[in-house]
């Protein structure tokens, strides 16, 4: 469609028509100057001259003059059509009398032959110089995949030797529907004697008879995407030029290795992690119970590059805008969700996934992107934040933009641009549900991507937050970012894009309001450390968790952090919210022991109350525990209590709180998350006590044990073990297993699993790629989610 030339499949039956004709992977074969004809892998053509004495016709003499490489005067000629048309040796004819060699100045037998292109070799082998030097050798296939701002090589075979004194030649690259020179989508590349940086140009580096080798340079701000290549040749005598179009396309990507590219990253270990690593870790749970799952990004997997270019194409983003990573990232954040543009993934937080795949069942971006591409853009069901983030990481790394998945625990969702998280109570300190539209998610996963920001004041380049989960619209579209992380940290929420929303997610204060008798609301409490905890991403070069909270916010309670919060609030819808706080001498805190309560057992927490005054204090705590989506939306309360508390001067008291298994067993949502809300008032001082603590019930891991030697091409196996932690039966259990370079993703239907029963599954597979690999498995069923496991397998060469 947009990026290639069409051909008639009826006239070319050997060519398989790709879906939508978007990315065409063709053989380099050409016959003469007719690149539209794509021959089979191997064709042998023999031309017999039945009457040797027959005089050559005028048409044939003309055609031989125009294209001598395709039409030579021989009695019998055999062609082997593979990568290009080449003349096969035939028995030597009867030697003719030796003619004297021409003296200097004499015209050679190519006299009068028009200069034309016989074939173009893009030197696009996955193991060749171009792909290795451009760090694209891990991509599947033999397309020429290059990075901007860096030279690449091509070879051209001509009808006769090229002479700079009498001939002229240039290259042309085109991308998009209506390529224009002024838009950078129609590129004219001249031949020069010396290459210079930051411009399109080509130089002849080798010449051997009719073959020449060109070194081609591109600027670091070139448009990325799919290009068609043409070679234009002619004579300096103003004769009509001839055009040869290559049958193979060129893919141009961003270049983190190029200092002039705005996505340049100067640390090689970070480039290996954030561009080249095709697996990673995504964190979830709560700040006190952080879980981790392995995710296969698979950006080099077969078909993923085509799928990522298809996503760009489907966005209807003008090709001329694809040179700016800010634009590309913003479009990708909109296209990963299907909310308003039929993007990749449909979000679903209802708990009902019967007509699709449960978000918790995915462990790879590969199946999602390939399914979206093969269906010509039908959104895939279903995703939630970690799935949106995993797919975003894949697309950005594939296109050459350094990216990582980031998890924020206690992540606020500010719905009214107040830059605060507001909780409303009535006169009796009962929550007013219809007003409590702001929420705090147990965790939320988005992305960081790396780039300079020349559109912002100096100092705001580096990591940029981008969020593909559809939460709030930005300029009428469900997208978010890129927002400078340094601007978020300092509270400069007036800098684009969507910085206020991300700031509120990580550093808003939680403000408690009580309704007065006249219907107005008064601020009764301010919680300054309620959101933005343990912001996590996978560490560089290991599977450890890296806490990057300090990148997003100053230390809690520091003067810099308070200044950032108050600076940001001045640009929100409630700029006067920071009045003098009420006196506080009683504190309430909820603690979780160890890794926290496990699924199938009673949930036990500790409520710790401290009296910081020299006088006794009395209070009544109202406790309520509710089942909660990980997004912070409460489903329903399952237990309410009133707890009278008496504190002696300077006393600290611990109250044990228990939720029996029988009360939550039939109530849980996907993430097994619960919210404990505490609220009360100190009798002596009228101080309001408030605390909200989210926690989850831990699920067991799948245990994966590799069996046998891991060698490329040799069958091995792995044993996957799961024990049902519940005293009840699990219905319709399905395992999903995948390993990049080990085996393709697939489902294994297990069926019902009895209470406390153990299931063992043995997988047999043949590794296809050497090096460190990960076998990932997950379990999917309605009663139990977020069950997964991973095994590290080092595969040896055969």
From TrEMBL:
GO terms for molecular function: metal ion binding; protein-glutamine gamma-glutamyltransferase activity. It catalyses: L-glutaminyl-[protein] + L-lysyl-[protein] = [protein]-L-lysyl-N(6)-5-L-glutamyl-[protein] + NH4(+). Its main location: membrane. GO terms for cellular component: membrane. The active site is at residues 385, 444, 467. Signal peptide: none annotated. It holds the Pfam family Transglut_core. Residues 1-24, 98-110 have a biased composition (Basic and acidic residues). It is a lipid-anchor. The keyword Metal-binding applies. Its cofactor is Ca(2+). The keyword Protein biosynthesis does not apply. Residues 377-470 form the Transglutaminase-like domain. Residues 1-39, 86-110 are annotated as: Disordered. Catalyzes the cross-linking of proteins and the conjugation of polyamines to proteins. Responsible for cross-linking epidermal proteins during formation of the stratum corneum. Involved in cell proliferation. Interacts with PLAAT4. PANTHER family: PROTEIN-GLUTAMINE GAMMA-GLUTAMYLTRANSFERASE (PTHR11590), PROTEIN-GLUTAMINE GAMMA-GLUTAMYLTRANSFERASE K (PTHR11590:SF49). Belongs to the transglutaminase superfamily. Transglutaminase family. This is Protein-glutamine gamma-glutamyltransferase K. It comes from Nothobranchius furzeri (Turquoise killifish).
